[in-house]
Amino acid sequence: MWTSDFSLDSFLLDVAAGGGAEQAIYLMASFGGEAASNAAATAEVQWMQQRLQERAAALGWPPARVAEVLSLFAFAADAVGQWGGAAQWIPQTLALWPQNVTTLRVPGALSVPVTRLDGEYTVIPWPSEPSQGPATIVDLGNGCGAAAASAPAAPTRHAAHGAAAAGGGAALLSFPSGADGRPVAPCTFAALGAVAQAANASVAVLFPIATKGAAQAASLAPAPQPGQFPPLAMPNCTSNSTSCAESLSIPLTVVSMAAGLRVRASLQEGASLEATLADVPRHAMELAVDHAGAARQVGWRKFATLRMLSWAAQFEGYNSRVAANLTRPATTVVAFGPTKMKGKEGVLVNVTLPSRAELAQAGSVGRIVLDMALGCQGPLDETCAVWDRVVTLAACCSRQDGGGVGGGVSGGVGGGVGGGVGGGVGGGVGGGVGGNCSEFELGRWITPFRRGVGRWLTDVSPLGGLLLQPDAQSRCSLRMTTDWWASAWYPSLSLRFEAAASPSAEQRAQDGRKVSPAGAGAGAGSAGADPSSRREAEAGVESWGPSASATLLFRGGKFGPDYNNNRTVRISPPPGATRAALYAVITGHGSDNNGCGEFCPTEHVFRFAGTNVSVAYADAGDFWGSTFTVAEGTIPSQHGTWQFGRDGWFDGNKVRAFTADVTDLVVAGGGGAPVEVRYWGLYKGQTPHPTTSPGVIIMWSWVAWW
């Protein structure tokens, strides 16, 4: 973390950008131990300080900017293990929060913590346990050819070791690296793994050898601007990365160049070495103190980067803003406290909601917010479920006196798909709700990989017409579910009815960042879209308050060649409607040969009487895509590949709806005349035609009326 320029540069750029953590202070210290020398700890901390100063200057900032950024850092001279008195709780807490750190042990040569690449690249398998060994080390030489400049398109083993076979042992391979310590193209980590696996190795131990000019190239590179990070090559094993990904079945790990050369030298001297790769419990190396003064875990060390600290600061900044928002006056209906969510039923409750008249009298008719928190079996991250899952909140409401709610759900579903994915809405809620009651999705979230600190506020005011009655209370059944076979989570849920308030600048910025402009050519083939007719999400809908009713437009389905069939409906504005907004919650899941729907960017076009309203999710597949949304509620430093951007969602966050004002397209002219609405879901501007089993789009799209 501290020796890598890439790690330090990315971290400093994060700190400089703020990202909602402008008030954060970073305290750096040497952990040491009870017997550690304070002189040694002081020397280590001084080296840390020097490294930060060197890299801040290397970024090309003016001296005043360097001083401003470095003023956010404090350095402790004494080893943390010797802290006592009022600070004693820090080493005690770190000791209580151990993490398993994958460690490579080679008796007589080294014992070092190592980086497991399965947390970084989805093409590399993630075994339940690392290889236990001991495994005899076999040196396969340069796994990517003699030199980076002459590396073949399909990397092969070094000629001197062409006939070598690991025979079930540990394969030692070097690779030409750039300034960031990663393989120089066309060499990739996945290709190195394929070389080791072909040699019948049980594990691959990789180490970099800096290519000629790598250091010079790094020093001559233009200084990155805030928000820009050094490029990180994706692991395309060969021209057919899908088959490469499917072929890998052994873990890969990386050690430093010095460690790798040490092992290689011992082998060349005739030593017989065995390697053991095992998870070793170690004390935590970092913690955060939140806005309330409580200590918090900051997640799993999956990347060798100090950005783990800046992500933690951004997330605590987000949490402080959530806490401030919860102090606003509101009428609150508690649905359930921390409750185990498991099985097909999930969490099922009945609640009574106040009427619009009661909310108006209390000054709480401005907007409807879901306050959802996610917890685990115990207080620590290690007690949380490992995998990311879709969480759905289904609702079914009727008048307390037995009638239907407001305008209710009107209209039909054009080309919709019954049921849901990952706890999606499909069956009836039950629970004694009578009258005209149609179940619908009220909220959607994605669980994190093995972290339990999420809390999100979701504005669902455009669906207010499905929840509230003007002059009578509503009785609603709420059902929160995820994949019924998955490990349990413990969610909490309240409905907050708040006073009217215009969306904050922060909320506008979040919505604007999430919704990307549709490309000029996108949709030209399938949707016949005129770029000049496109419109993006418009600020202002959030301030309209709860809708009077809502018309269901379209659902999702399998994202294949038939996805866009029968996607036309006709809708009519209800009597008295003066405003209308498109409200759509869209996420992609699964994986075909295009990476759809989870990792492929998709575009969704809604045509209202000839005018297209569209949203494009360009973050899907971006290597660091989710890291840019930590300040918006994405839980950082999760146990899996959380950092990738997804199609309309991020691991460990709420799913945000796309909204757009369509009043002039469906209400203008009056008379309640019906309007034709057409929908397309597109990949690269066309209807998808995957060659493997297609992924899935989960979508609920509506026109809400005021």
Automatic annotation (TrEMBL):
Please give the name of this protein: Peptide-N-glycosidase F N-terminal domain-containing protein
Region entry Disordered: which residue ranges? 504-544
Concerning Gene3D superfamilies, the annotation shows: 2.60.120.230
**Native species of this protein?**
Cafeteria roenbergensis (Marine flagellate)
Q: Which UniProt keywords apply?
A: Disulfide bond
SUPFAM superfamilies in the cross-refs: PHM/PNGase F
Drop me one GO molecular function for this one.
oxidoreductase activity, acting on paired donors, with incorporation or reduction of molecular oxygen, reduced ascorbate as one donor, and incorporation of one atom of oxygen
Domain of life the protein comes from: Eukaryota
Name all Peptide-N-glycosidase F N-terminal domain ranges.
332-497
Lineage, please? Eukaryota, Sar, Stramenopiles, Bigyra, Opalozoa
Entry's InterPro entries?
A: Cu2_ascorb_mOase-like_C, N-glycanase, PHM/PNGase_F_dom_sf, PngaseF_C, PngaseF_N
